[in-house]
Amino acid sequence: MYIFALILITGVQSRFVSKHEEWIPPPFHSDLEDVYFEKNFESVKPVYLKRIPRQVQGVTNTNPDGSSNWIIKTPIAGNDKNVLSGVGGIYGVKNGDFNAALAGLSLDNLHGHSASITGKHIKNFGNQLTAAGKLNLLHNDRHDLSAHAFGTRTFPNNPMIPNFNTVGGGVDYTFNNKIGASLGMSHTDLLKRTDYSAMGNLNIFRNPTSSLDFNAGATKSISPFLPKSNWQPNFGISYIKYF
Predict the structure, then answer these.
(1) pTM across the whole model
(2) Domains of the chain, start order
(3) 194-204 pLDDT tens trace
(4) How many CA atoms lie within 13 A of 52 on its CB side?
């Protein structure tokens, strides 16, 4: 069996304008954006299947510049409670080319916990190594509350640019599998930059094999290198289909 998820997300992304602009290519300015996208291929909630689906999962979304991102997740080993999967993906696909490639491992637990480690190569820039984890704090028939965190080490190709870290995390809440909200934050000390994200989610339709959702929210970046730090809107429609 396999699972294919199609995510269409349209919105406004804030751009990082500073002396560092030339060596941080879009759309990789915000690690929060990657975390939000990659969360879309997490396991189906236990409320439906009562087990972890040992299936191939695929997810794609579009960027404002017309490019797209693709990720595939393939189970390697596991049991009824835990599944270890291989993860691969490409980012910024457009006109037969792409901006970055990702590969790694992900461990998912029946109770909603997960951990992953991934490496990403960004063309004409360098490499990134990211460790991420999610802890499910509460789950019952009406409420689902999780916390997630990540740390990214970036290794630029340019020897004049030092290696640097980005750390972040957030919380995700869903009520009655219908209405949800997410708060997130990340910080890159080298750039003196902090990114904030506040998102809401409304499920329009869901059954054991598909889901249609409307997402809306805003992001904000604060840095002495930014001329201003206004909240920028971010919204879209997502559709996921399981086979």
Answers:
(1) 0.76
(2) 2-242 (2.40.160)
(3) 999 999 989 88
(4) 25
